[in-house]
Amino acid sequence: MKSTLLVPPGAAGQQDAAPAAAGTCRYPGCGHPARARAGDGPGAPPRYCGRTVAEDRGEHGTAEVTRTALTAFRRRQELAGADPGSDNGRPLTTAITRAAAIRDDVLAAITRLSAQLDGALGQLGAVAGQLAAASPEAAEAQAEAVRAETAAGLEAARAELAAQAARAHAAQAEAAEARAAAAQAITAMEAAQAARADAEARAAAADDDRAATLQQAGQVRADAAGQVAQAQAEAQAAVTAARAERDTALAAAAAASARDQAARDQLAQLRDDHGRHAAALAAAHQAQLGALEETITGLRARLQRTEADADADRAERQHLTARLHELTTRQDGARKAAAP
Q: Are 33 and 25 in contact (CB under 8 A)?
């Protein structure tokens, strides 16, 4: 799920690696014009184009990124060499992406295991066809080789299943950490709202910046205290010149409060969606593991039947060899007895 958060004019100016021309998107490396303002209301103009562009993410492949204040902040962190998994990222999105990657790994492993099982079944069929024409010793040697190869394949399948189970467990742990991080983000947002109420008492002109800082507190909570202090300083400096615009700024504060409520609702919806996605993913993994265990059990049973057939065929050949030896001995005895 993608969302666009407003960036305070002061904070955006500090985070930009280089100054952008007026009306140009401030996303690193983007030269498109910023999107147009929706309506003629007060507040800073939009600073980002909002385009969705495919970007190279290195070992993670290519990802579609919507160019907003949030994605620009994360991109600047990546370009600066910051840890992409720090608290300034989006923990819920990271956990969902990690779970999807593990799901893809499980599906790929199941596909490879199915191909290996088909190959083993083909080899067992070839062995069954060759047993009728081969000598007992050659048949026994080939059956032993097939048993060893099949046992190795089963051991590799078990190891693959254990690895996939470990990845699924790790994904569940990451999801739990993401939920905890979301709870911390909510707590930080509420603390920032209290700070905004204190700043409103000093100057109404700083309400837009303060509301935007509260909306972004979940993503930059490490810098929230500094941004609030900056907003308070700017409000104190602007209070003398801003008295004539007080009514307009109060209306903007009311709109910012509505946007803040919408952001909290969106965060709650995102947490619910993540819980449902994690439960569905765990159920799908469990079903796939069960089907794979059934396939391995069936293959083991077929191998046992093939070995039993090979043993029976070997016993039959031994019996025929003994019978032939007995008939040959009798014929030799009869010829010697009939000789003058």
A: yes
* 204 in the same domain as 185: yes
Q: Is 22 left (phi over 0), alpha (psi -120 to 50) or beta?
A: beta
Chain-centre distance of CA 137, in angstroms?
52
For residue range 116-168, what is the model confidence (pLDDT) as tens digits? 877 777 777 776 676 666 556 666 776 677 778 877 877 887 788 788 778 77
> What gap in Å lies between CA 177 and CA 86, rounded to an integer?
12
Q: Closest Cα to residue 46, out of 24, 31, 29?
A: 24
**DSSP one-letter code for 60:** G
Boundaries of domain holding 1: 1-82
Any domain includes 336: no
Using an 8 Å Cβ cutoff, are 292 and 163 in contact? Answer: no
- Which amino acid belongs to residue 331? Q
Helix and strand numbers (H, E) in the chain are 7, 2
